[in-house]
Design goal:
This protein is of the alpha/beta class. The protein has three domains: 3-91, Winged helix-like DNA-binding domain superfamily/Winged helix DNA-binding domain (Arc Repressor Mutant, subunit A); 96-229 and 414-426, 2-Layer Sandwich (Nucleotidyltransferase, domain 5); 241-407, ATPase, nucleotide binding domain (Nucleotidyltransferase, domain 5). Helix content is 36%, strand content 19%. The chain contains twelve helices and 16 strands. The protein has a five-stranded mixed beta sheet, with helices on both faces. Strand 9 (194-198) and strand 10 (203-206) form a beta hairpin. The longest helix has 25 residues, at 340-364. The chain is elongated and about 85 Å long. 47% of the residues are buried. The model is unreliable at 1-14, 136-144 and 428-436 (pLDDT under 50).
Length: 436
Amino acid sequence: MRPDERVGERSPEPRRGADHNVMREVNRSLVLALVKEGGPVSRASIARSTTLAKPTVSAIVDELIADGLVRELGPGSTAVSGGRPPILLEFNARSQLVVGAHIGARRTTVAIGDAAGEEIARREFPTPTALAAGVAGADPAGAGTHIAGVAPADALRMVAAEARAAIQGTALPTARLAAVGAVLPGLTDFHTGVCLLAPNLGWRDVPVRDILAGELGAPVYVHNAGQAAAVAENLEGAGGRVGDLALLYAGTGLSAGVLSDGRVFHGVGGTAGEIGHNAVPGNEEPCNCGKVGCLETVASGPAIVRAVRRAVAAGEPSSLAGLDTFDARDVATAARAGDALAASVIAEIGAHLGLAASWLINAYNPAVVVVGGGLAPIGDLLLDPLRASVARHALAPALRGVEIRASVLGPDAEVRGAVLLALQHSETYYRVVFRA
C-alpha cells in the first residue's frame, strides 16, 4: 500500500519504561514501513530517516530478510562523494497473503491478495444460503442463482475450501496467510465477528469469525457490505481518499458504510450503518428482518420488482407485463427503452434512496456520498431523483460541499473492501492506530 493509503497515523511517543521487546518491535515496524513505502531504499538511508543506529538497522534488516519480508536488489548508484554503492532493499509483497470473501445474497467471491493489496487469485460461485429455494427476497433476480438450504456453518466451510483452493492455485505457501476479511449482507458485530442477522441469507447469530478462523488458521475480521464497499471506494474508487465519506449500499438490501476521519464507524455493538431497517412512516410492507415498514422494503432491488408487479396487476401498461421473472436490471432496461411505468418506479425508488442519503448527510456531514451496490449501475434514472430528494430533505448547511457520486468499482467494491480490510487488520505496526 502507498503511504497515502495507510489506515493509521503516528501514535504518541512510547511511554517511559517500555520494555526492550516493545521497543524492538517498534523499531522493526519503522524499518519495515520505510522499506515497504519508500523502497528501493538502502540501510544507510533508513538509518538517516529513523535516527536509529546503523548497527541496529542492519540487524533489523537481516532479520526481515531472514523472515522473507524484505529482499536485497543489489547495488544502487554510487554516491557523489564516492565509496561503495549501497545495497538497495525492497519489500517482498508475496511474503504475506490475505483472503477477502464477499458472501453476497446471490454470488460469493473469494479473492487472494498479497501484502501490497494486489489481487493474485479469485474464485466465484453461487452463495450457499440457509433459505429454502424460492424464498422471497433471497434472490432479487428470481433466477435461483444461490444454493439454497445450506446450514450457515457448512456454507462457511465451503467458502473456506474455495479460499484454500485459490491459495493453492497461486503456488504460494498457505502458511503465508496473515488475515481474512469476511463481508456479509446484514448486521454484523465487528467486535465479536458474529453475523447477527442476514435476512437475505437466512442467517442469525452465526459465529463467522470463529468458524472461518478454525478452517483457515488465520485471524478473521467481519464487516457488513456497506462498510467494506466504503473502504474500497474511498481508497480505490469514487471517494478519492477523503476523510469523511458515507456509502449508501443499495442492492438486495439497503445499508450504509460511514468513514469518519478515515475510520470505519462501527458503533458500540458493531451494527452501525443498518439504515435500511429504519422505519418509514406509513409503510406497511413486511421486511425480511421480521419488522414492518423498513426503508429497505421500498428502496432496494426487490422493492423495484414488487412495485412493478403491483402496478401491472392493477392494470397499468408495461413491457414487463406477462413476464414470469424479471429483476431490477430488467426494469432499468425497460425504462431506458421508454417504458413509462418502469421509469416511474425507478424514480420513486430513487426518491426513497435520496431520503436515506439525506439522513446520512444530516447525521454525519460527509464530504462525499457514494451510491453503490447492485442498483448503482442504473445510473441517472436512479441518481437524478435521488439527488432531487436529497435537496428536499437534507439540511442546507450539511449540503454545502457534499458531493454525491456513483460507485466506480461497481460489483468489485465489496470484495476489494474485504481484501483491503484484511490487509489493514493484518498490519502490526505499533506506530499505527487502526482506522478500519
